[in-house]
Amino acid sequence: MTIRNLLLAATALALGGPAWAQSAPTITPQPVVPTAPAPAPAVDDDGGLSGTVSDEAAWQDLGIAITAFATDQDLPTQTNAGTTASLGRALSDVISGDLRNNGLFKPSGPSGLPQPAYPQVQSPDYPVWSARSAEMLVQGYVRQNTDGTLTIGCYLYDVQLKQQLVKGGWQVGPADWRRAAHKCSDMVYSRLSGESPFFDSKIAYIAETGPKNRRMKRLAIMDSDGANHRYLTSGQATALTPRYSPDYKQILYLSYLNGNPRIYVYDLSTNQQRLITANSYPTFAPRWSPDGKWILYSMAIAGNTDIYKISSAGGGTPVKLTDSPGLDVGGSFSPDGSKIVFESDRSGSQQVYVMNADGSDQKRISFFGGRAATPEWSPRGDQIAFTHIAGNLRVGVMSPGGGSMRHLTDSWQDEAPTWAPNGRIIQFFRTEKNSGKTSIWQVDLTGRNERRLQTPADASDPAWGPIQP
Hints:
Elements (H helix, E strand, L loop, with lengths): L2 H13 L13 E3 L32 E3 L3 E2 L12 H17 L25 H6 L4 E9 L5 E9 L4 E10 L4 H17 L7 E9 L6 E8 L6 E2 L6 E7 L5 E8 L2 E8 L4 E7 L4 E6 L5 E8 L2 E8 L7 E2 L7 E6 L5 E6 L6 E6 L6 E2 L6 E7 L6 E7 L1 E7 L7 E2 L6 E6 L5 E7 L6 E7 L5 E4 L4 E10 L2
Parallel strand pairs: 2-4, 3-4
Antiparallel strand pairs: 1-6, 4-5, 5-6, 7-8, 7-30, 8-9, 10-11, 11-12, 12-13, 14-15, 15-16, 16-17, 18-19, 19-20, 20-21, 22-23, 23-24, 24-25, 26-27, 27-28, 28-29
């Protein structure tokens, strides 16, 4: 069935369903019902397309026009985008970039497209868009409120059916206008694909500067599209392997100062950090449990490296989960917290293993040649991403049982995969041959859509956070 037929079928079912009120996502200070000069038409609950798309390439035939967001008055704002008219264009630029770079759609606009007047936001000129072969249309508006906040509305229309599919509205502070754009992108993406959203999320990573033998490694964060970049640490101590907490309030990371490892949790609301554990033994790869109550990490004692867990509150006695000769490193919980995937060389080379959360029933799952390292469980629970070392280093995925292995990248050195919140896109870092420069890249599950995220400095160890509340 074609994408067009899927959409027609889903909408036809929706028209016979009960009326609904959309639950807009929470965004500081509050979501709002989008309004314009004319009353908004009633919307029926179609719930989005059910299931997922098996052939992602088909979605790229879906023409989505994204216009510059209209405004009732062109007023100066406290944003970095300028007046409300300039902000309207910036909003649509962010939305277009989100939908273009996720591997499912190839939208057009806002450049080169007609810009609707404010009253047309809820009354599209469908013949204009039909003549441009647009199947879907995204329009919206931005209004500045008397207190300096912004009200931003977003609408998705089916051009051929001449019908509104979904709408959303958010009231935000000037600094959060990009979040409203990402929320709009998430709404459109979820309605058309049936997938969970991921654009309104953040990424933690390690920013690297300086010569190869004296690298400064700082903890940094940015939006999912690379905007709003911020350094969290000064670089006096080396920072490594960050991970967002499940509630998005903290970042877990490893720090080395004068050769002494420490695991810290950085509180994003207070910009303060607290010590979880410190010791004189080499320590690696701290990771959260899905409920945020435990932290996994690896520690080497007398040439043997094992995996431990400790309370995320800090203090207490670490619990040892592995006890085999060699190196047991890393650890990523399954989404339900019942299992842990990790790497071990107990068989003679780096391979991927799975065990129960209490350390029982340890078994190898990678049997496809070469070495396998840095495994991370998908948020969906259906796949494990990892680094496949067979000549070059490539990012691959496999089932939790070790089957259906396939490569998503094919460069010289791609490693340390981390999942988008919806489990559809993987982020990793790439090292250039000869130069040693590192950068963050994304690839979708087809392996056909790669994208580099621009960062102010070299970048490694990315970690994708969950969808922001």
